[in-house]
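Q: Hi! First time doing this. I have a protein sequence and I read that you can turn it into a structure. Is that right? Here it is:
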Amino acid sequence: MAQMTMRTRMLALIQGREHDRVPFVQYRNLAAPDEEVWAVVGRENMGVVEWTTVHGVASPHCHFETEEIVRDGKKGFRRTLYTPEGHLFEERLYEPAFGTSAAAAHFVKEPSDYRILVAYFRDMEIHKNRSHFDAVVRAIGDDGLPHTAVARTPFQQLWINFPSSVHLAPPEEVYRATREILEQGGHSGRLQIQISENMPPGVWRRSFPQIVKAIADFGPVSG
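A: Yes, that's right. Below is the predicted 3D structure, encoded as structure tokens:
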């Protein structure tokens, strides 16, 4: 089989063609900066995925306003949606290790809030905008693929999100758990192992090499 880049390997997975091994990827810079991870496991052994869009959304009669907040000593933000039918707000608090956020209060809190939310939906105008998508394609190159932020696609349904707790296990357990996932998926060419959720800082240095080794030992997959 001809040498494959991570991009061609992932495309073969999506298109149902034969490829040399199960792709192992992370969201760009998730566990650590990509260059740092590649220095440990090899650039050819881990690909990247980045969320992007091919559209834009305009709401001529609605708008959002954001303000910083502090709740129980945790920093976050409140985002308020203003519509002709009224306003709603959500609150999100930052997770300090990774800088991501989690919802502390959702926009819809009671049935009457749906009337306001529907007013926003009805005001939406969707238009084509490839600028960010094209920039992501150029930035990723042969290291992976963009993932468009639309409803769940068949590509996303193929992912197995590697369980975060396993990263804390001894290396031999990480290897065993990876092999179990691979054996369950089989050599069908319909499996991609992805790091797409937060994990304890630094543990990737111990776990990623075991995942890469298990994938290499598992061998080629069919289309």
